[in-house]
Structures are given as C-alpha cells and as structure tokens.
Design a protein that fits this description.
alpha+beta, 14-stranded antiparallel sheet, about 20% helix
Length: about 240
C-alpha cells in the first residue's frame, strides 16, 4: 500500500521513480567526470564576476572537473538503458550575490546505445536576475561514439570517455547564459557492476571474424597448391 501511495504522489508531481528492468545490473561503483564549461568556470573565477563554486554530497571538484560519485542505479547488460542518481549540489555564485545558481541531485539516464540525458534540479538566480526553481530538468544531452566506449565484461566495467554534452532547451531556460544547443565540456564515466553482467563490445565479432579468416586461409592454401602444380614461366 505504501508503495502504491508513493507512486501515485510521484505521478501527480510529474516525477516517476526509475524502476530497474528485469535482468538489469546493479551499479556497484560509479564515477562521472564533467568540467561543466571551462569558459564559464573561468568567467566565474575571474576579475569580472569575482565568484566561486561550491560542491557538497556526491558532487565534488578536482581540477579541472566536477565529479559525481557514490550514486545508485542500474544498467542493462546491453547498455541501452541505465539510470544513476546522486545526492549533492554544485553552486555557482558571483557578482556579489547577484548570480547564484544551484544544480542539485544530478541523474544520468541512458536512453539508447549512444546517448543519455543529464537531469538536475535548478534553483537560484541567473545572470539575467531571473529566479528559477525547477526539479528534474533535462539539462543536457550526452552523445558518444563507439570509439569513446570500452567494456570489460569479465570485470563488470563500462567506460565512456569524452562524450559530447549539449545544453537542451529546458537547460538553457533554467540556467540562462547559454542558448539551446550550446556545447558544454565533454563527460566521461566508469560504471562498475557484477562481473559478467554487462556484455562486452566485442561480443558477436570474434566468431564471424574467425570464420572469415579461416575462409581466407583456405583460399590461400589452395592457390599455393595449384601454383606448385603449374609449370614455371619460360625464360628467354
């Protein structure tokens, strides 16, 4: 009964808790690194804004990137669906308090094989002095290619390096400063699950590749045998 009430309230508020699909891998450890936007950090810490940023909870900072650690969630074995949430805040402030914006409780949701959405709660005042208080904002879209991905199935590791991050229309409206489509700093992460739970990126290639090599080897051997039986070339 308590679970039904919780789901009903979540639906009324427009926020539905993420439920792990059957067979999904529980995320044991996770680390996401993201610089947000280098030019914005430089502006905040520079002579004009004379500001700073603070972090708390699962959100930290290690020059030159913010880190999200200690999150909870899941990833499906084929990595087409994942959801990991964190408790913590990143607070930007400057211009003697005129600018103060908090990005809290980040959540990364993988939506297909090559993209994800970063959700955050946004509160405070933008650089245009607009007050904002919104939860679960689809802040940015994250996209990566096959060359950015590495999976070690035997160790239960899934790594993405340097994925492209683009500000969404909702993120632009909530944060201000940048238009929709603005390219932010790249994002990287490492998910750790139980050994053997995620599928390796090479699954399905090796058997086909071995068969192809066998065919080529047989063709070469046959050509060599035929060549040995044929008469040699005439010399002048």
């Amino acid at each position: 009964m308590r679970e039904l009430i919780t789901l009903a309230l979540a639906s009324l508020l427009g926020v539905v808790p993420a439920a792990a699909p059957e067979g999904a891998c529980e995320v044991r450890e996770v680390r996401i690194t993201w610089g947000f936007k280098e030019s914005f950090r430089s502006y905040i810490s520079g002579a004009i804004a004379q500001g700073s940023w603070d972090t708390s909870g699962d959100v930290g900072y290690s020059l030159p990137e913010f880190t999200f650690t200690g999150g909870e969630g899941y990833v499906t074995p084929d990595r087409t669906n994942a959801d990991v949430s964190f408790d913590g805040e990143l607070v930007f402030s400057g211009h003697e308090g005129i600018l103060e914006t908090t990005l809290a409780n980040p959540r990364l949701t993988v939506v297909d094989t090559r993209s994800a959405v970063l959700f955050v709660d946004v509160t405070g005042d933008t650089m245009d002095e607009v007050s904002v208080s919104e939860t679960d904002v689809p802040f940015a879209r994250v996209v990566w290619g096959s060359s950015d991905e590495d999976v070690v199935a035997t160790s239960g590791l899934w790594e993405i390096r340097g994925a492209e991050v683009v500000l969404t229309e909702e993120g632009s409206a909530a944060f201000g400063t940048y238009p929709p489509g603005e390219v932010m700093d790249p994002m990287s992460w490492i998910f750790e699950v139980d050994e053997g739970c995620v599928q390796g990126t090479g699954v399905g290639w090796i058997p086909g590749g071995a068969a192809a090599l066998a065919v080529v080897a047989s063709a070469i051997a046959l050509a060599i045998r035929r060549g040995r039986k044929s008469p040699g070339p005439e010399h002048p």
